[in-house]
Amino acid sequence: MSRRTEQANGKAADASRVGVAGMMLMIAAALTMTACTAAPAPSPGQSASSAVQPAVSPSPSASPQATATADPAVVATTSAVESTLKTLVAGNPKPDRETLRAALVSAGIPNDNVEVSVSRTPTGLDVDAMEAAARTGDSCIMGQIRDGGVVVTVLPVLATGKCFVGDAR
Fold this sequence. Notes:
By secondary structure, this protein is of the alpha+beta class. Residues 34-40 and 47-68 have low confidence and may be disordered. The chain has helices at 3-37, 48-51, 64-69, 72-91, 97-106; strands spanning 114-116, 129-136, 139-146, 149-156. The chain has a four-stranded antiparallel β-sheet, covered by helices on one side.
């Protein structure tokens, strides 16, 4: 085999490996996107068009399995955070940071266990969403206010003992 043939075969093999790697990346990206956008199947008696609903993360208190195994303190804090945020948003869809913190503390959550994100950007604009966390044991009850809506979920406490990563100022 000539040197020129060997070089051509080497380049073809390199191109083949690059093609396979690219194809695997495309497959992984496609699987990731479809996993995030799958719509629920319609129930019997429901048309396919009426089955498509906006994605809403259920709160852990809504899941029968979560409440059966969850710590009662976590369930109680989750309920308190959710009802407090919904009440707060009903009066003001974009509360500021201190109002949000004060509402959670007045709901019975210790001040040291409350973390609240900033309500203004460094340039002075309102943020798109506010985040609040209430630490209970090894769990963080995370609440988000966005466009006047409230979503609450439970996540584990970080290794730092906090619920937020970084400086929330």
